[in-house]
Amino acid sequence: MNNLKLYSELSSKLELESKEEDESVLFSAFDIERSRLFFASSANRIYTTHLSSFHNERTWSLSADVDSIDLEPNDYITALEYLMEKEALVIGTFDGLLLLHGVDGNETTMVGRVEGGVRCISPSPDGDVLAVLSRLGQILVMTHDWDLLYETALEIVPEGVDVREPTSSRYESPISWRGDGKYFVTLSEVCDSITLLKRIKVWERDSGALHATSESKAFMGSVIEWMPSGAKIAAVCDRKTDSECPSIVFFERNGLERSSFRINEQMDSTIDILRWNCTSDLLAAIVKCEKHDAVKIWLFSNNHWYLKHEIRYSKKDGVKFMWDPTKPMQLICWTLGGHITLYNFIWNTAVTENSISLVVDDSKIFVTPLALSLTPPPMYLFNLKFPSAVREISLYSKNTKNCLAAFLSDGCLCVIELPTVDTWDELEGKQFIVEASISESVFGSVVHLIWLDSHILLAVSRYGFDHYLSRISSNEDGILGFYLQEIELSCSEDHVPGLLTCSGWHAKISHQNSLEGQVIGIAPNPTRRCSAYIQFDGGKIFEYTSRIGALKHNDLSFSSSCPWMSVVSVADGGSLKPLLFGLNDIGRLNVGGRILCSNCSSFSLYSNLADQVITHLILATKQDLLYIVGINDILNGTLEMYEDFIHTGNRRREEIKTFIKIWERSAKIVGVLHGDEAAVILQTTRGNMECIYPRKLVMASIINALVQERFRDALLMVRRHRIDFSVMVDHCGWQAFLQSAAEFVRQVNNLSHITEFVCAIKNENVTEGLYGDIISLPRSKDIKDLKARDPKGLDVNNKVSSVLLAIRKALEEQLPESPARELCILTTLARSDPPLLEEALVRIKVTREMELSSSNDPKRRSYPSAEEALKHLLWLSDSEAVFEAALGLYDLNLAAIVALNSQRDPKEFLPFLQELERMPDLLMRYNIDLRLCSLEKALKSYRACGNWSGVLTVAGLLEMGKDEVMKLAHELSEELQALGKPGEAAKIALEYCGDVNEGINLLISARDWEEALRVAFLHGREDLILEVKNASLECASMLIGEYEESLEKVGKYLARYLAVRQRRLLLAAKLQAEERSMSDLDDDTASEASSNFSGMSAYTTRTRKTTSSSIISSAASKARDMRQQRKRGKIRPGSPGEEMALVEHLKGMSLTAGAKRELKSLLGSLVMTSEEATARKLQHTAENFQISQMAAVQLAEDAMPSDSINEQAHTLELYIQRVKSEAQNSEAFFWRSKIFLYP
């Protein structure tokens, strides 16, 4: 995803000693230690120059030292190499001389002679050995001390062939070493081949043995080059027999062919020289075409060979080149006439500022908008086809206008107007032919090209010598060097929306300035129209303004030349200003006139704003660390947290997460996706692209969207990047979000997304905790003011509950009713803090009631089924909590449904629910509240049940205050009095209210005499003692009267019972006698008639209605029974039930257990107050009554089964004596005081 940019082009003329035109430069060598260049000419002269001597002054001459090599008249130089160990040149001649030439002392020594002449000399990479190929086809390998190690023949010569006959032309050099020096390769003709086929041979250095041989092929010339890394051997194959252009073929060390690619030239073109750069990533060749020669440079990436650059020369120049042995991006070219040019390249990202990929490959540009599709080259969306190879490109993109300018290797300028990016989907897979612009101007060799405006280009061009692109006419002899040119563009064709405008463009140079220095880079000024910054050699920055043409020096210059230069607009104090970024070749990143990072390998700039104001710097270091730096940190100088962008293994720093570890070594940043995409695009050394989303950029884009109230976009980013949803609430305070909840729901309008958001909200402020180190909050409002405005009805101290309540209200207001909305509302209830499960269950209960009603209400369609809603609630909440919430509603059926849907064992909950169902309602509520530890509810249930002790116990558990307990006790005391429970009210008054007077009065009302007297004595209150005494005397007098009256009633009721019983027996005997006289009746009929008649008797316990009970409904029977029970207490003389009513009434007159306890307490109180006489009388009266009542009941029960009344045996006096004898040890008389018992 990179393009090879030529950023520096330095040319000089080597002044040859001979004025004759036939002297030409043939060979070159390089001194790595002292950066010297050596050239050997056809006149046997050695020219020595330093790289530092190259300049761009108008003299254009190159100072050089000249040494002449004395040779025989017909002898000449055929090979030249520099030996670092000898610090001298080794020269081979046509006659076979091996000469060692000391450049510094101009001394030449013959060190050997090779039979047949020297064809080429090739030292090993480590300098230990030297390989010499003779013109007779012999390979000689010797040490740097000229000791011959071995000699071998390049090819086995057939019999009859003269080995002394030279085999090749004088300028070819077919030996190449592998990078480690263990092997070398040669290319030689097959001796027995009629078709002049050749083959590659790989030789072992140490032994000279032949290691491998390739198949015989039609290799072109003697061009062969072993990649320094040792992976491939490059050669050229002639494809004329296949009517194709030549192809470059790659072989492995074992001689097998690996791959190849065509050079895309004419069929008759040839390749003379093939060279790898020192890092083995670029392959350059000289391609000789019909009208020109070209230096072509290829790159291999993603299994594709890209032609990244082409430099054209005229054929008469006879151009040759070499790569700088230490600088992989520096190419040195020279011509036969001595014109030497240094080309300095850099890898420039093919991704533009608006994330459009423009990858150059020969005469094509592959166009891909990465924001639409992250497609790695050689794939693309569409491509542009130009007349010749592309050398320099520039893209203009502003608003909806997109224009592309391309400078070609043939000197033409092409312009294309592109449609808006959102219509590019229609261009997929298409190729567009671009025509060159019409121009009468000669643009020279364009090194830099940018847009100043939509119709103005600014270019830096070089003119000079006989350069192919500098066609200088006779009246332009003075135009030499570098020029700054404004190029005006116009188009004769109307732009059609959605289509490309590839033709009809006119270009002319409107303004031209001569430049005194070398330009390293230019960049447009984004804050000022038609303005640009120009960087000269050394890092000096000047500002250029269109049409004025003046260069104004800028104070923010770089400390050194920075080939990678970018100018962006940043916000500083509310205004926009330009900020300059520059990266030099040693990794120093200059920003705003100072060095920001010293080990930067690549950088890019990111903007999350629509106006492309840069907000973040993204840089990668040589340690393969990726940093995201805020522009505000750079402007404010707050960069301490980055620790000079060097990883020191600081644990605290790793916790802060200031960097991202790049997973693949030497990966480079090629671009970013701006705005909401928030992505960084990396390209590995293998060529593949990777897209990462740094948390800091993602958070910046999310916060930016939230500030702009683009809630839907923010939510989508949060979901896509798995960010905590709470950031949407916390970015400017959750109180502010409450006011935007309705807008949030309206924009999102996706219930599943809202549900996901609701489930993730937490009380923690993630902008201060989880994302505190990577987030920067643009607070447009004061948070304190927001918090001061408490929204009505919301809990300002509970973030989760308040936010979910606001969402719930917004859902009900903004979205129509639907099952999904109801489920979302249930989610807000379940996720509240604490969960509002009871409210959720109430909503589910309403749905279930609608289902059970079997109504056709259309509203039912707007709700999910009760089962679905309940399962949704159980999925969101703890099943036990939902079960308890159902119990808290006191709905046992709902609780059972919850338990069943939560997969609980019925044995666990059914017995408990059944037990609750059998309880009275209030007691059930109390037990449920107690289980749920709902003490306040239990308090209410206790009060409703009348269990005052439980109420006060719960009050203690609730830790109620003293005043609250006192108030509660008074209320309970009054309630108990109203309920007729004065004894319990007295206990509360005494124990909780401390009111002795009221307590005594209540005990008297409860007739708890002994307790009343005890309390009175406890408090030493004589007045209360007297009050208790008087009340007990009054009560004793009243009871004596009641017992005497009841004693009389017992006698009356018993006598009536005996009389009724006697009369019934007589009547029954009479009826039986009459029945026996009716002998003529059938037995069955008589039986039925007798039964019916007797049933109608006034003294029978059955009626006619009861005999036909089988045909009477159960409901009617129950109603009749209820009426009979209400009438049972009444005695109606002559009624059928009179006899039983009398017996029941006698039984009902017995002393109850409460009456006995009251009587016992009253007797004790009278005795303790010295009222023995009254006590004795009371006990005697009560005892007589109880004995008489018991005796009467026994007599009645004994007389009931008898058919006759024995007047002697069935007497009350007799039974009274019997009861008296039994009463001595009977528990029924426990109330009696023993001191009053008669002997």
Automatic annotation (TrEMBL):
Pfam families: A-sol_ELP1, Beta-prop_ELP1_1st, Beta-prop_ELP1_2nd, HB_ELP1, TPR_ELP1. Coiled coil: none annotated. Residues 1109-1136 are annotated as: Disordered. Transmembrane segments: none annotated. PANTHER family: ELONGATOR COMPLEX PROTEIN 1. Component of the elongator complex which is required for multiple tRNA modifications, including mcm5U (5-methoxycarbonylmethyl uridine), mcm5s2U (5-methoxycarbonylmethyl-2-thiouridine), and ncm5U (5-carbamoylmethyl uridine). The elongator complex catalyzes formation of carboxymethyluridine in the wobble base at position 34 in tRNAs. This is Elongator complex protein 1. It comes from Carya illinoinensis (Pecan).
